[in-house]
Write a structure and sequence with these properties.
single chain, 164 residues, alpha+beta, Aminopeptidase, 4 helices, 5 strands, 33% helix
Length: 164
């Protein structure tokens, strides 16, 4: 009987950027499929652009980028940061999770939950006492995961297209 390789959660490195670009492009694609008017469409440049964006984030001390790795391959990631008071969103300092993505072939095995828990720990080490995130309204699986991890709904984003 072949057991699955163990999944390791670790900080991202520059060597992960190609895989992170692929996973980031998948995140863009999934959201665009949820609502084509609200979320940007992926392009052939999305993977490189997203990987390049995260490359800059890896250098920041207030940012957390974690990779879920199995058998030497990145199968998921989180991207989060510690933010100060934000008058626009009426909140105090907090950890904010921007991305959590697990390759669809590796879901339903606890990888997302482990990424969340490790992200909480990393944000707490940076001084966060609260963590916020946004998720697509149509992403029921993610909403269930986040609720089971103790998140509660606090805001509802609403979108309307204007004529022309």
């Amino acid at each position: 009987m072949n057991l699955p390789e163990p999944v390791t959660i670790r900080p991202a490195t520059p060597a992960d950027l190609e895989a992170l670009g692929r996973l980031g492009a998948l995140l863009v694609r999934v959201h665009h499929e949820f609502d084509r008017d609200r979320f940007i469409a992926p392009t052939p440049r999305t993977e490189g652009g997203y990987g390049g964006f995260l490359a800059g984030q890896l250098k920041r001390k207030d940012v957390v980028v974690l990779v879920a790795e199995e058998a030497g391959a990145a199968i998921g990631y989180t991207y989060a940061a510690l933010e100060g008071t934000d008058w626009l969103t009426l909140r105090g300092p907090a950890g904010v999770i921007y991305d959590l993505m697990v390759d669809p072939e590796h879901r339903r095995r606890g990888v997302g939950r482990r990424l969340l828990e490790e992200t909480f720990a990393a944000l707490q080490n940076l001084g966060a006492r609260q963590v916020l995130l946004s998720t697509a309204e149509r992403n029921g699986a993610a909403r269930r995961l986040f609720a089971s991890a103790g998140f509660r709904p606090t805001m509802i984003e609403m979108t309307r297209e204007l004529p022309g």
